[in-house]
Structure formats: structure tokens, C-alpha cells
Amino acid sequence: xxxxxxxxxxxxxxxxxxxxxxxxxxxxxxxxxxxxxxxxxxxxxxxxxxxxxxxxxxxxxxxxxxxxxxxxxxxxxxxxxxxxxxxxxxxxxxxxxxxxxxxxxxxxxxxxxxxxxxxxxxxxxxxxxxxxxxxxxxxxxxxxxxxxxxxxxxxxxxxxxxxxxxxxxxxxxxxxxxxxxxxxxxxxxxxxxxxxxxxxxxxxxxxxxxxxxxxxxxxxxxxxxxxxxxxxxxxxxxxxxxxxxxxxxxxxxxxxxxxxxxxxxxxxxxxxxxxxxxxxxxxxxxxxxxxxxxxxxxxxxxxxxxxxxxxxxxxxxxxxxxxxxxxxxxxxxxxxxxxxxxxxxxxxxxxxx
Amino acid sequence: xxxxxxxxxxxxxxxxxxxxxxxxxxxxxxxxxxxxxxxxxxxxxxxxxxxxxxxxxxxxxxxxxxxxxxxxxxxxxxxxxxxxx
Lengths: 353, 85
Hints:
Radius of gyration of chain A: 20 Å
Strand content of chain A: under 5%
CATH class of chain B: Mainly Alpha
Number of domains of chain B: 1
Distance between the termini of chain A: 34 Å
Helix content of chain A: over 70%
Oligomer: heterodimer
CATH architecture of chain B: Up-down Bundle
Helix content of chain B: over 70%
Largest interface: A-B, 9 and 12 residues
Shape of chain A: globular
Structural class of chain B: mainly alpha
Largest sheet of chain A: none
Radius of gyration of chain B: 20 Å
Number of helices of chain A: 19
């Protein structure tokens, strides 16, 4: 990829117009209602008639069933995000490429989980999304790695290297992947916010605001998971810097008392956006529903920002999030149908606005 | 600085008999500035329009209309020529 030219203007108008058009072509409520009642074969046919046509036709001869759906989804996602990078220029390119490093983090986590659970190579490969900074060759090398430790070694020279190496001991001690996964997430977010210029430029301000919201939600999710699981771990170890909701010490206190944590969030800037989600949390036994509500809230927050500031990076990020949700949803439907879940059970797994 | 003062004096002396530039020249200025404004507006709208058409061919007509909308600026600026004469 070419380096960013400081004197080149950002083409927000062009990218925003294209992104909004693509955003409107994503599946809506009606489509999901139809999809959850279909078998995997029907889902594949439905997708052939949607914007996934090219991918479905190309991969149709090699795979079938939910594997086909999964490969097509990932390929389509990668294609869309590569387009984003191709279109954008100047500052906008810089913002987008930083954010898409998320997929490097995703790929690393997928490979780690695959190695941890000793999943076959093909299954791991199906879940990789070639949309980040890593080249196809680097991804191949990752998939080839034989154990969790090998994966860490392959990543030695990337930005994730140091953090992973530090976390590997923790992993060997506890046998849990959580330290490694958090190291990956933390590196991603630190590099995302850390490198941004300090000048109080409006566009940068918005970008940071959006990222802070995402970090806060991630912290909140981690805190709740720890609170609910009752695991004896120090929450500050998993705290991601850069959010504006809590700092590490506060988080440690709040994890001990879930009611206080909920109250704290309700009083925060996100109170209005998260009201519904918090009500769900109060009533629900499991965290899954709350986590879905958090995803929906983040999506809505991104949408609000993108409507308020149409000529900024926000519409692009909102599209990226919405597209990810769609891919997750369709994957959940295809896998759920394959496993024989009822439409109601699958519907509970979906994140729809 | 002295040159500027002399120039100002000349302009003021001339100004005693009438405006610094005639009505036709002022109208020309108005049309020119109007065209500049149109250009600036169409720069953004054009970029967005091309983006929209690239995604969906049906957007061609709306895109064309919105791209042409700032033309009203230059058309209205054109009227000043007839007013000035």
C-alpha cells in the first residue's frame, strides 16, 4: 500500500457516497426473518441472488453447505474492506487502515483458538479474513504454525510480538487463552489511538471519540465477564487503555460489585444509548444477550455519529461495523441451522438494530 | 508604501468623478465570483455523485440533477450583466 501523502486531500464525499450506498444494500430485518427459517441450501440460494452472487458462484463448485456460506461471507467482507482502502486518500486512508488492523487481531485470535482447540487447518483458514495489514503469505505462515507457541513466534516481528511474548507465560501457567487474546486486543487499541496526532482537529476528534466508545464497551464486556464468571483474576490485567469510562483502579473496584458497575454505566455519557441494554442485563441470566445489546448500541452510536457528521470518517466506520454484524449474523444463522437450532434460538443470537 | 499612497490618491481623485470600476466590470466580477462558488460546490457534489453512480446505475439521473444544482448560482450571477447595463 502506498504511504499517505500529507498534502493530499481526503475524498470524504466520494467514499461516503459509496459507503452509504453499500450500507443500504445490507440485509434488513425482513431478510433475517426469512433467513432464519431457511435450510443451509436455501440460504446459499438466497445469497446467490443478493450481493454475494460473485463469491457464491466462484466458490460454489468447491464447497457446499455452511462452509460455502462462510467462505463467501469472509471473501465478500475482505473485498469490501479492500475497496475502502483503494478508494480513500489522504488522512481518510490513514484512519481506515488503522481501523482495519482489527482484522489482523481477528486473524491472530482465530489462529490461536484454532491451535488451542486443535482444529483442522482448513477450518482455521476458512475463518481468516484477508482484510488487514498482514499479507496473504504472512497469514499462510500463521496457519502453518503447529502450536500456540509457534504462532507467537511467527508474530515476533509484528506490532503484536512484544505483548504476546509477555503473555505467553501467563498462558502456560493458567492454560487459558484469555491472556493472549487480551494482549492482541490491547496492542491493537494502543496502536490505534497512540499514533494519532494530538491536534484538536474535528475529524480526528470524532475518530478518537468513536474509538473511545469501542474501547469502553470492550472494557465493560471484559469486566462483566469477569464479574459473572467469578474467576479470581485481576481485572486491571485485562484493562485496555484509552477509554474514558473507567480507569484501571475503578474497574477493579467495580468488578466486585455488579450493581455498582451497571449504575456507573447508566450515569455515563453512554447512559441513553445503553439504557435498553442495561435493562436486558438486569433481567437476563446470561451475558450473551447483554453482549449483543452492547454490539447493537455501538452500531447505533456509530450511526448517530455518521448522521451528525456526514463528511468524516464516521460513515466509513459505521459501514465497517454494520458489515461485520451482517457477516456474523448470517454465519450464526447458517451454523445454527446446520446444528438444528430452532428459528427462535437463532434469532436470539442475532444483532439487529 | 509611498507608491500605495500615491495610488490611493489617484484612485480618490478618479473616484470623485465616479466608482473605481464601471458597472460592466463589476458585473464581470460578479459573474466570475459566482462561477468560482459553483465550482467549489460542484467539486464536492460531483465526487459524491460519481461515487453514488459507481455503486448503482439508477442513481445517474438524481446524481446529474444534484451536480447541476449549483449552476443556479452562476445563472443568477449572469443576471447582473443585464441589470448593470
